[in-house]
Amino acid sequence: MSPSILWFRRDLRLGDHPALLAAAADGPVLPVFVLDDALLGPAGAARRAFLVRSLRALDADLREHGPGLVVRHGRPEGVLPELVAEVGASAVHVSADFAPYGSARDARVEEALGDVPLVRTGSPYAVAPGRLLNGSGQPYKVFTPFFKAWVDHGWRAPAESDPAQVDWVGSSGRGTDADLPDEPDLGDMELPPAGEAAALERWEEFRGTPYDDVRDRPDLDETSRMSPYLRWGAIHPRTMLADLDARSTHEATFRKELGWREFHAHVLHFWPESARDYYKPDLKGLPWAEGRERDRLLEAWAQGRTGYPIVDAGMRQLLGEGWVHNRVRMIVASFLVKDLHVEWQHGARHFMRHLVDGDLASNQLNWQWVAGSGTDASPYFRIFNPTTQGKKFDPDGEYIRRWVPELTDPTLGEYPEPIVDHAEERSSTLEAYHQLRQGQD
Predict the structure, then answer these.
(1) Could you tell me the mean pLDDT of each successive run of 10 residues in the chain, 441 residues long?
(2) How many Å apart are CA 312 and CA 211, to the nearest integer?
(3) Which member of 106, 171, 270, 293 has the greatest number of CB atoms within 10 A?
(4) Cβ(31)–Cβ(177) under 8 Å?
(5) What are the phi and psi torsion angles at 8 (to 5°)?
(6) Is the CB of residue 7 less than 8 Å from the CB of residue 92?
(7) Which residues on adjacent β-strands are paired with residue 32?
(8) Would you say 307 and 313 are in contact if contact means Cβ atoms under 8 Å apart?
(9) Nearest C-alpha neighbor of 58 from the set 168, 151, 189
(10) CATH for 281-440?
(11) Whole-model pTM above 0.90?
């Protein structure tokens, strides 16, 4: 029988994998990953390293059942047709991609494949973006009604894909080790363990955490830390949802966080321009720092040298771990946009470069939410006070001491004075919003 190609992308696992089931139903399966420079280029060292480790873990899992993962480098619309011809493949199977680049890439691949079908089965989401519409047949623009529709719609049970029952085949060409790039030098940075087994283990460790009580406390560090695994599909959200009991307050709250991930994918699907431009274009007219002044402020923020401890702790955590606690992400984003008056795209780009879990939909639309140009109905007055936020969510200063040790040990360096006065900048921001609104009325 002619083999089918299973083209892995954001689904680096063998369990709960609908596209794998579809490929296996066609006969022998050739597992493939394509290293695409268009996606690798914007990613920083941490995310590239985590991807390489995830691919090595997937390859190891595959080698328990067959020849292992085939890795090729290049533009998918060129690589896949060549591989199809090389092995005589009858189809290319994928999990559907709904992001702007992914959708356009898949259309190019589909055209390049000619008569060989690109078969889309499943997606990285519990409910595929584009499926949920309101009573008027329009996409949801606000989270709460979307979330209700998402819960009411429901999702399938985890797919029972069994890699031991698949007839895995290899290619006569290059193998994994030769084609995987070397990991970038991360210095002292430690990343979470990669791969499907690590994702499932972390999920089991997290379950039972009193999430609703601790999720806003960066000093306690008891959030799920599942985001890197969801980013690369080492676990499917449906697997997690199947384990959650909505009658538990803590598990219902965590389910809502998964709902936000699905909502942002939904918004980006219908408004792909929101990845780079304002979801609410009426806020484009706000005054922003420009030129050298903007660069100076952005650099101080990026390096964790603003003189506001909770902000600096978060930005140093980003550089030190490739990850930031969710509450702190909101604090540092608000500070950049509303205290330093640096436009949100600059912060979003910095996050996407350094985050291990950098996900375009969640990252960009969360930044827009903080900036006031996103999906929230009345966000213009929301300005996080970095001092009170630090006192409330890091009450003993443990998180700050971990990342800003010179505050308690001056021999480690001199801590800077506040780069701006928060009260003054808050007033300035609200006045700018007020004037913009008046001018539009």
Answers:
(1) 95 98 96 93 93 96 93 96 96 97 97 98 97 97 97 96 94 60 91 98 95 96 96 98 94 97 98 96 90 98 98 98 97 98 97 96 96 80 93 97 96 96 96 85 61
(2) 25
(3) 106
(4) no
(5) -75, 140
(6) yes
(7) 7, 70
(8) no
(9) 168
(10) 1.10.579.10
(11) yes
User: How many angstroms separate the first and last alpha carbons of the chain?
Assistant: 67
Query: In the structure encoding, which two tokens stand for residue 214, read together?
Result: 């601790």
CA distances from 269 to 41, 45, 429 (A): 22, 27, 31
Overall CATH class of domain 125-158+195-270? mainly alpha
pLDDT of residue 246: 86
**Ordered strands of the 118-120 beta sheet:** 70-73, 29-35, 4-8, 91-94, 118-120
The 3 state secondary structure assigned to the chain is CCCEEEEECCCCCCCCCHHHHHHHHHCCEEEEEEECHHHHCCCCHHHHHHHHHHHHHHHHHHHCCCCCCEEEECCHHHHHHHHHHHHCCCEEEECCCCCHHHHHHHHHHHHHHCCCCEEECCCCCCCCCCCCCCCCCCCCCCHHHHHHHHHHHCCCCCCCCCHHHCCECCCCCCCHHHHCCCCCCCCCCCCCCCCHHHHHHHHHHHCCCCHHHHCCCCCCCCCCCCHHHHHHCCCCHHHHHHHCCCCCHHHHHHHHHHHHHHHHHHHHHHCHHHHCCCCCHHHCCCCCCCHHHHHHHHHHHHCCCCCCHHHHHHHHHHHHHCCCCHHHHHHHHHHHHHHCCCCHHHHHHHHHHHCCCCCHHHHHHHHHHHHCCCCCCCCCCCCCCHHHHHHHHCCCCHHHHHHCHHHCCHHHCCCCCCCCCHHHHHHHHHHHHHHHHHHHC
Burial (CB count within 10 angstroms: exposed 0-12, middle 13-18, buried 19+), residue 400: buried
Residue 389 · residue 330 · CB < 8 Å: no
Q: What is the pLDDT of residue 86?
A: 94
Are 71 and 180 in contact, with CB atoms under 8 Å apart?
A: yes
pLDDT of residue 378: 63
Look at the block and give the residue holding tokens 């560090």: 221
Choose which CATH entry (1.10.3210.10, 3.40.50.620, 3.30.70.100, 3.20.20.60) describes domain 1-123: 3.40.50.620
Q: Where are the domains of the chain?
A: 1-123, 125-158+195-270, 281-440
User: Cα(239)–Cα(328) distance, rounded to whole angstroms?
Assistant: 27
Q: Which two tokens stand for residue 185?
A: 């030098």
pLDDT of residue 438: 81
